[in-house]
């Protein structure tokens, strides 16, 4: 998949609309068919966009994709892009509409100015005479606003649903072979695919599902840090007048994994680790194995790299032969988010090649009893000697520290030095360093192991409860603190929203590449919550 057709400055290299269309429709998959299981919801959606001049196509895609995700609709539902007529020559908007195969509606500023928008912006009104171009463009298109508008790097997107009387003809749908529940039946490898859907795939995360009043089964983070850790962090606040010094925490992490300190780079969570790798590396062929956490691919795209996807089919087991031999960067999760699959260490090692960087995301490995299949190493079991291996670890999940942002990279010193050269100064703050020092002690590692064992028991109780729900297929056996399931029944696409209406927040999984409508990721909680959720899920799958 190329990411260089349009730069972030909005340039299209002088290409005509026909050439742009050809760029996106001349798809050349290596195997399989072009079908990403991105099924629509049946709505007809207008996306209103306001932007700065010269905005890039990637920024427009990201703003649109995140606004669609929050609204609970799909890019495939979009029937029009709407904006102010002053944007008639804005290349990124023209390209987006062309890629989606929908009209770009150009509306006069005086028409937009009279719309009663819910979230006016004094700055926008001062500059263009319209309090919110994005929201006003939706309303002026006879659509009703749904969800909140979303702003990303100078682009604001709002989403609206057309009324029945205003509905437009739909763009032609792509089709492809599917199996039961709308899932592809074969693993697929893609060189290129329609970039209009990238933001939708990559921009949605579990935290977007959470609103007050819903039971949180969407975010895979411990509910709160243990008391002793909270007390230690509160005590550390008194030292915040000093600049962060990572040396002690780096030594502690190195000792925890039986490595020298120069094989450790502390990061502001696992997400920053992927950004640093994307900045430091210059791959000829980067491959991301999906379904998996979407930030690795998002980081590569943001750094301007081409990305090739290997999309696994259920039961989501890796076949190293699917990865092209000339791939010099491969990214995979273990255990994988959202599938909860724990891949054998030897299978991952088989992905290594001379000259290849193999990145294994072990963000949830400390939730696996005994850290079975880990490649990170420990004092008792040193890491295997795999050239090019980089392991990404997170300390936020098991310890309830998502808001603190702390993780690390394990790998060859020369590669970590290259990553560090692209890292912002003092990226990891003093409290995060104190947390890393605390939770990598032998006592804390033993506590994490006990927590992992207890959580595995809770997962078995969740699986038992789900087994009693008709028309639910759980992927397994799961090994992480979450499970992936897909719903059948008369309306799989509506299960997620019906659960929300009943008070339950789960992670919609149709935004993970390779998964389709009806897929959900559910966090493991205690037995009482699991039993209540299973009952609610049964009603959501078979309403009435």
Number of DSSP helices? 17
Q: List how many beta strands DSSP finds.
A: 19
Q: How big is the Rg?
A: 24 Å
- Beta-strand content bin: 15-25%
Mean pLDDT: 85
* SSE class: alpha/beta
Major sheet details: 8 strands, mixed
**What separation lies between the terminal Cα atoms?**
44 Å
Strand order of the largest sheet: 7-11-10-12-13-14-15-9
Helix content: 25-40%
The stretches of 5 or more residues where confidence is low (pLDDT under 50) are 1-40, 170-185, 190-200
Shape: globular
Lay out the secondary structure.
Layout: H1 17-25, E1 45-51, H2 57-71, E2 78-84, H3 91-100, E3 104-107, H4 109-113, H5 122-128, H6 133-140, E4 143-145, E5 150-152, E6 155-162, E7 188-190, H7 198-202, E8 215-217, H8 227-236, H9 247-256, E9 264-267, H10 269-280, E10 286-290, H11 295-302, E11 307-311, E12 329-333, H12 345-349, E13 357-361, E14 389-394, E15 407-410, H13 413-421, H14 430-439, H15 442-466, E16 472-474, E17 482-487, H16 495-501, E18 504-508, E19 519-523, H17 527-541
Parallel strand pairs: 1-2, 2-3, 8-18, 10-11, 10-12, 12-13, 13-14
Antiparallel strand pairs: 1-6, 4-6, 5-6, 7-11, 9-15, 14-15, 16-17, 17-19, 18-19
Helix pairs in contact: 1-3, 2-3, 8-14, 9-14, 10-11, 10-13, 15-17, 16-17
